[in-house]
Design goal:
metal ion binding, binds D-xylitol-5-phosphate, alpha/beta, single chain, D-ribulose-phosphate 3-epimerase activity, 218 residues, binds zinc ion, 8 helices, TIM Barrel
Length: 218
């Protein structure tokens, strides 16, 4: 299982997004773009126009994490714009099967995200509809929160579910991923790691990506 690192631009300088994206383009696999609407989560970030501009300006693929209400309406447009991965929240999607299929139909990878308190069981049947499962390891909305160890059993359960389904679905964790926590998330079975403050809070973001990868591969 190849380890992938997806730095979150939530912790970057929003006045220099393209530059901050390029700072990790040589070392990271993805750029994680946190779309927040101030309704699904109590924070507001950016939306489709900014993603469209980033797609033109940066060389790294975009991993768009939609923390918004009504993702059924908006998610396909991100895929259509050219985002290489689009993830919707299970708690917000009213027609997740249709939405995931629409994302894939536009040629993007489709992701389904679960908040820390959302049980995996209710969504197990959707494993064949997704390219990635995202397990939140903090309550979504803000960077710089502490990694929730209570999610570790769900990471293990998701890894087992993915193995039973043929093993091609990626398992992403997002929230509180650092040099200290990445190892236990990896040991539990995660293979794609989002890191905001651990990357953009570092003096050398590219070196921070390399360090996280090395720690996850241990
Ligand atoms: C939180 C976002 C995360 C956030 C992670 O709701 O989904 O992607 O940027 O930030 P850190 O790595 O600082 O916890
Ligand atoms: Zn995120």
């Amino acid at each position: 299982m190849a380890i992938q690192i997806s730095p979150s631009i939530l912790s970057a300088d929003f006045s220099r997004l393209a530059e901050q994206a390029e700072a990790v383009a040589g070392s990271a696999d993805w750029l994680h773009v946190d779309v927040m609407d101030n309704h699904f989560v109590p924070n507001l970030t950016l939306g489709l126009p900014v993603v469209e501009s980033l797609l033109k300006a940066v060389s790294i693929p975009l991993d768009c994490h939609l923390m918004i209400e009504d993702p059924d309406r908006w998610a396909p447009a991100y895929a259509e714009a050219g985002a290489q991965s689009v993830t919707v929240h299970a708690e917000a999607a009213r027609a997740p099967v249709r939405t995931l299929r629409e994302i894939r139909a536009q040629g993007a990878r489709a992701g389904l995200a679960l908040n820390p308190a959302t049980a995996l069981d209710a969504y197990a049947d959707l494993v064949g509809e997704v390219d990635m499962l995202l397990l939140m390891t903090v309550e979504p909305g803000f960077g710089g929160q502490r990694f929730l160890d209570l999610v570790l059993p769900k990471i293990r359960a998701a890894r087992e579910l993915i193995a039973r389904s043929g093993g091609s679905v990626w398992l992403q964790v997002d929230g509180g991923v650092s040099q200290e926590t990445v190892e236990r998330a990896a040991a539990a079975g995660a293979d794609v790691f989002v890191a905001g403050s651990a990357v953009y809070g570092a003096d050398d973001p590219a070196a921070a990506v390399d360090a996280l990868r090395a720690q996850a591969e241990k």
